[in-house]
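Notes taken during the Thursday session

The instructor put the following on the board and asked us to keep it in front of us for the whole hour. The protein is SDR family oxidoreductase. We were told not to look anything up and to reason only from what is written here. First, the residues (264 in total):
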Amino acid sequence: MTTSAPIDSPRDESGRPEPRTAVITGAGSGIGAASARRLLAAGWNVVLAGRRSAPLEETAGGHPQALAVPTDVTDPDSVAALFDAAVGRFGRIDLLLNNAGTFGPAVDVGDLTAAQWNDVVAVNLTGAVLCAGEAFRRMRDQLPAGGRIINNGSISAQAPRPRSVAYTTTKHAISGLTKSIELDGRAHGISCTQLDIGNTATDMMTAIGTGSGALQADGTRRTEPTFPLEEAARTVEFLASLPASASVNQLTITAAGMPFVGRG
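Then, after some discussion, the predicted structure tokens were revealed:
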């Protein structure tokens, strides 16, 4: 699916739609990398952010509309530099895919250390807030104003896996962040979606054990179905291509047959 630019996209002097610009965190692997490639193929300018340069450059693949910016999303100065680089190269920001995240330790709340908790919060929550704040300011102040933020929530924002207290708690917090952005963005043409994805075929799902036996609520282990990364990326492109007059507040996409509805 290749989409055309919405009618309210910025246009050049001849009236043709200009390429829109997306910033994607966690773009070196998984959903972030697949989404970056998908948007590049659809004609977007894409700014790829992640801790390490090599995976970002691999995702970019030398594409002329890609810009790789090594970024620590937990560092306010690093996040500000990311958005400065994006605007400096492409002039504006139309989309943020707030995707960087970590699963953290597989422990219950009784065994979660303060250091482990802080590490997960720093990436999954503080990083998401810092990136959303920078994107919001740029979208609010640019002409024409407006843009879209997609927060990668995870179905753990709705129903937890066992022994995932830090991850689940931060993902529940993303729901509040999404609603706050959607509310505060109304005056500036900024909309926000929480995209909850379940069991995409990623390294994180492999670590959880979807293929070998993931821990279930009743203490048993079972293999779980997954679905291709490309389908998650296609969902991101669908959300990104919506006109400014439409907003999807929350969207859930899971592998067919995974233990989510009635989990456990």
